[in-house]
Design brief:
Inositol_monophosphatase-like; five-stranded mixed beta sheet; transmembrane; D-Maltodextrin-Binding Protein, domain 2; 2 domains; metal-binding
């Protein structure tokens, strides 16, 4: 049975997110996005596709397929069959990873699923709101998110963490539980605002932002030069794809936080790419208590 060193997968995840980010920046700089409507979401908004999405997808997936051909890889743009030139990885593990994990951590290749989001916040990317843009990689072991990488290509920031391993990011010193600041998606902000204020009160502060990766970063302690909005809880009440959330889930878990469905169930990163139970993400708070405050979505 083939085994893979998780340190190598972490190093490759970092490299892939950053290489994808280079393509995202290059396409945005050239300006020829050649955007098209990929599909309609359940909220009847158009999900757009650009050359930035495709170029990033091709380089990121190529790195994994040439390095670990027996590891399952799922990318948001797997419908793309154009291929492109093969990208090779050096198999060099950065010193910042080795200092946390000096010894090999071997797992069976068949237990692994790599989730890739080659360009998160495509709509904002098109509108030059590139501070929301991220590229993300997550490695799940038997459906549990273990490695998470979120890269902000326009801010030269890469955040990574591995459960029971190490991290180059940390939680903030304090969070507000009684009146938390909630960060939500701009595409269904009204629904989530009403939902969140039923749970936490009419004066609950709400931040509207693009990109699931950006929203997770808003819960963390980043360098001042690249700090995002500061939120205490991330709430999403509708259908969302697992490549959008797996990396953030792994990072939060590694730092002692949580990302669950709105009922408090763990999200299984196997099988279907759809997460239909909504989500709540928090760190430094009593997550179970937060879940208990949530109203039933069926309530008017």
């Amino acid at each position: 049975m083939e085994e893979v060193d998780m340190r190598e997968l972490l190093a490759l995840s970092i490299a892939a997110a950053e290489e994808g980010g280079k393509m995202v920046k290059l396409v945005r700089k050239l300006g020829d996005l050649l955007q098209q409507v990929k599909e309609k979401t359940k909220e009847d908004t158009e999900e757009l596709l650009t050359m930035g999405d495709l170029a990033s997808h091709r380089v990121m997936t190529s790195l994994f397929k040439t390095s670990f051909p027996n590891v399952k890889v799922i990318s948001e743009e797997d419908h793309d069959t154009e291929g492109g030139s093969l990208k090779m990885w050096s198999f060099a593990i950065p010193e910042e990873v080795l200092q946390y994990m000096p010894r090999k951590i071997m797992v069976p290749a068949q237990s692994l699923t790599v989730w890739i989001d080659p360009l998160d916040a495509t709509q904002e990317y098109i509108e030059y709101l590139t501070h929301f843009t991220t590229t993300m990689v997550c490695v799940a072991v038997n459906g549990k998110p273990i490695i998470g990488v979120i890269h902000k290509p326009f801010n030269k920031l890469t955040v990574w963490a591995m459960v029971n391993g190490g991290a180059n990011v940390k939680r903030r010193r304090s969070y507000r539980e009684e009146t938390p600041t909630i960060i939500v998606s701009q595409f269904h902000a009204g629904i989530v605002k009403n939902f969140s204020r039923k749970a936490f009160g009419e004066n609950t502060p709400i931040i509207v932002a693009g990109g699931a990766g950006y929203k997770v970063l808003s819960l963390l302690d980043l360098e001042k030069e690249v700090q995002t909005d500061l939120a205490d809880v991330y709430v999403h009440v509708t259908y969302i794809k697992k490549w959008d959330i797996c990396a953030g889930n792994a990072i939060l878990e590694a730092l002692g936080g949580h990302m669950t469905t709105l009922k408090g169930d763990d999200i299984d990163y196997q099988g279907s790419p759809a997460n239909r139970g909504g989500l709540m993400a928090s760190i430094g708070l009593d997550h179970k208590r937060l879940i208990e405050k949530l109203p039933d979505l069926s309530e008017p």
